[in-house]
Amino acid sequence: MTSAWSPAGDRDLRVGLVGLGSMGRNHLRVLSSMPGTRLVAVADTDRAAVEAATSGSDAQGFPEPLALFAEADLDAVVIASPTTTHLTLALAALERGVAALVEKPLAATPDEAATLVDAARSSGVPLQVGHIERFNPAVLELGRLLHEGSWLSSVYSITSRRAGPFPARIRDVGVTVDLATHDVDILSWIAGERPVRVYAETAQRIHADHEDLLFGLMAFPSGTVGMLDVDWLTPAKRRQLAVVGELAAAIAHEVRNPLAVIVNAVAGLRRGSLREQDRTTLLDIVEEEAGRLNRLVGDLLRFARPFSISRQAVALTEMANRFNEGGDANVAVEVDATPDAETVWVDPNLFRLVFDNLISNARQAMRDGGTVNVRIRREEGAGEPCVRIEVEDRGHGMPPDVRRRALDPFYTTRPSGTGLGLPIVQRIVEAHGGWLGIESAEGVGTIVTLGVPVARATGEASLASARSLA
User: Fold this and answer.
1) Fold (topology level) of 312-467
2) Which of 237, 343, 351, 371 can pair with 164 through a Cys bridge, CB separation 3.0 to 4.6 Å?
């Protein structure tokens, strides 16, 4: 007989965890520090892993997962055990009125998954499958740009490549069920529709019982094609998500505006009675709009192409100070750097673009003059040491709606802007393994902050790859 389920109310949620593999350990870390949640029980057939997980806490440990449901007082459970155990464990949870989060895939077969869904519906106990990859920052940002930013008017193809070394703990299923289910979900979510046809080829090279390589094709109703390349045969982990499509009307609009001005100016130049002063004015207009088109094309190419990074020791203070030479005499640039942060290993050409864009934006924001403050500090923090760079202006600042869209490609509030400057800066910083943030208040000013790892060599960020358009 199934126990009735009821919400926990205002008290802390009592949660159990089954499985201490790579995903299980991730859940262990999150559940141990989540406000309003108490991790009260942990189960895994590896006794040493259970002892390590419960050490220093009041959580009970169980070497037999089903014993967890029989003996622990639970409101909810996270099931991150081998896929072939999902049906038995999830049914045990539902029968006891325990809400269950089951890591993807929900079950080993479609029939088993349907059994679990039917059991959850009939019992009224919440059952949720894990969608962790949907909350990957790269996937979220790509989806937002496609669905909200409208910078691709149509999507031709979506390609997901996921590769890595052979996982020692996974013996019950192959790479299709263990990993490709995530990619099928991601591609369907980005496309906004379910596939109508699926084709696949698999191969078994190392795994004793199951396939460890998959190439798949998915056809969507809109005509979008999804491609999967998943394996357990690559020494280093590799994640890539790429979208190919047609540039949106926003870009056509950016091109059409200066072209219309040029066409009108040329029509004026054809008039035989044109005065020399008017002729000069029209030629200046043509030159200005042609320059605007050239900037747009240059920025578009910089944004779309993957970066090839050549790291060198770069003196950031010297790089920032050069903007006092021949710049706007009404706006000075003041650099404050600590000695331990003056030099960082980055691509000098790319970081000149970063400073050029940020300082140029800051100067344009300060119409009445003033000082752009550049602060450079070293930060140790909990992770990798980094150099923190802040570029601050005391200009007009951004209203909240502009701030939210400041990093969107092709979004600009300046008549001569392309809307690609800050997105290019963000891509450069992230390609160096860093991060970028913006704080702004209308009438107060703006601070753009970026962090770059101090290490001489770091891997290129997967987020930059995910944003690349082929």
Assistant:
1) Heat Shock Protein 90 (3.30.565)
2) 237
